[in-house]
Amino acid sequence: MDVKNGANGQNNFKRPLRIAIIGGGRRCRSLLEMIDSEKFPWLNAEIVAVVEPNDEAVGVKLAKEKGIFTTKDIKDLYSLDNLDLVIELTGREELLKGFLKRGSSEIQVLGTTISRLFSDLIRFQEERLFRERQLALIENIAETIFSSIRDRVMIMQPDMKILDANRALLEWLGLKKEDVIGKHCYQITHRFTEPCYNHGIHCPLKECLQTGGTGHSIHEHQDKDGSTRYCEINTVPLRNSRGKVEIVLEIVRDITDELERRVEQKTRALKKDLARLIHEDKMIALGKLVASAVHEINNPLSGIHALARLMRERLEKDARPLSSDEKEQFCYYLQLIDQESARCSNIVGNLLSFSRQQKMEKNFFNINELIRRVVLLSKHKMELQEIELCLELDDSIPNVYGDPGQIQQCLMNLVFNAVEAMPQGGTLTIKTAYESHRDQVRIDVIDTGVGIPREIISQIFEPFYSTKGKDKGVGLGLSVVYGIIKEHRGSIYVVSQVGKGSDFIVRLPCKEQND
User: I need a surface site. Which of 12, 210, 337, 402 has the fewest CB within 10 A?
Assistant: First the structure.
């Protein structure tokens, strides 16, 4: 149709293209649905008439719903004003020929083939718009999900450049998206100027590209406040249709609190195990003490029994009063009985005290008194092995802070180890001194025994490690000593020389420590 000049031409240009459709079937319905100025603003057109003899055709029904003129006779189109275009969809070209003979020369006609092409073009355009809307919707959904994920997520290129980052990561770092996009990941998360693997840190992205699978690592990162956080890093490669990795998804999960909980649980479990080992070790030490104490108690008991029998026999055989010499002798016997029975009582009392399982209770106590108690329990064992005891205790030292029962167990173990290191006899020296610069009391347990080879010194405090025979124990002694001393915020180490002996040095605090 020609566009006329002047006002009428301008009006014709602005008004919609008026279209009539011959054929009211499915294609007609599709055109009616597709030619919508809201969906296709570039197509300024409207359907003004539908010609179809069948009133039940789907196109006719839709036209009637939209208020479009419908007719069974093509001749009725002649009466329509300003009709610009006729689209034939039935395939009956003779209808068009008859219409063109009598119709206006300004009315354009599209044959069946061109009409179908036209409708297909419109349908393709609609499908494209529909897919664009779907894609936009999917992108919005993906963006919403990406932004709402609680874990920190980055999308990166294989060269480690960041393409996108979600809200959780940006808030954690205290950065804006424009500060992150285009930067390398190591610049953002580690504040490095070069890849983190150059700093000896395992790179999960590099692992991901090398193996073709997911990468995993645990890194130390800093948050926006500069606090160090432990993060679990997982990288997932995303491939194109040719199998090439185009982008990598990196998921950062903060596991600091989880690690702290695990460490706390492990610490509680270790303390529980230490308490069990301490009790087991105490029972082992008690068995050694009892074996030694039986012999030590037997001697005074034999003397008490002999003296009591002598006194009874004297009184039974002779009823006369005791002379002054006999009274003096009986008093001497009773004094011996008193002394020996008291010694037995002390030994048994100390054994009972040592064997008692008590809750750990820390307070201040005198370490010299504790050492003398340990010596009393183990002195007979030393005498049997012809070991000379030398005590060099500083009476001016302050009290130490800790659990007396557990420290006694430590000292007992150290004394037993020293005695067993001198099977042919020797000298055991126990010293105490105050180190003012540390505010600690130092205890030295020194023997002249076989010594410890240099290559195993680092292992002697490990559980179940022992250089003794199977009949000497299970190797818990020194590991328990180490655990108790560390629990008291003290220290223990050994200086030893093979063939000359060992010096176990223990330091304990003189003031209360925060547990």
Answer: 210
